Amino acid sequence: MEPVKIIPCLDMKDGRVVKGVHFVELRDAGDPVENAAFYREAGADEVAMLDIAATLEGRKTRLAWVRAVAEALGDTPLIVGGGINELADIDALFSAGAAKVSMNSAAVARPEFIAEAAERFSSARVIVAIDGRRNAEMPSGFEVVVSGGQKPTGIDCVRWARRCEELGAGEILPTSMDGDGTLAGYDLPFTRAIAETVALPVIASGGAGTLEHFLEGVTEGKATALLAASVFHFRTFTVAQVKAFLAEKGIPVL
Fold first, then answer.
1. Which positions are catalytic?
2. Which pLDDT score, from 0 to 100, does residue 160 have?
3. Which of 3.20.20.70, 2.60.40.60, 3.40.50.1980, 3.40.190.10 would CATH assign to domain 5-248?
């Protein structure tokens, strides 16, 4: 088993880190640069920064934020998502210091974008984020939503994950809208359904609130990386505590 990565996530709005519940009810979680420096020192394997308002506001990710956070992170890889619609956007983000990009709404709107990005920049640097919510009418029970969870697509999450893999995505980042910010645990059926469908690394996201939740994300959700926000931003746990707990349970960590 490959070592499991621990990834703090900076959701960005108006220049600040924010955290909500079910993608709404946002509250301030601090300065992004200060958080990035903290997570670098804390031993984060990667850090994600998602410009959650970019698509809704019809704009690109703020490159100034990316540069500042990437500089604070040093050698810790930065994943950036939000407002990525064309290859030039990805090029600009990599030039600003991003190591990987995470695409969502644009990939759903034009799936070929995944293939184009993978061919130009390599699959290893292309993550497809899949925001999902429960919908009994979908074959898997989970429907893809876009635009910050505001627009249902009628697309089944598991089928979409399989299609993303075929198009050249290097990783899948499924986030449960039902679990987001609840601290009630990762949506294990959702994460597992995708992990068991693709051969790609899968990053569990949405709902971690206890150390046991991180363990469950691996053992039951079959994730290869664990992303969290609230428990790290509000200092419920440190990255080191999560890694130590997983290691005690026999899960390899970096």
1. 11, 131
2. 98
3. 3.20.20.70
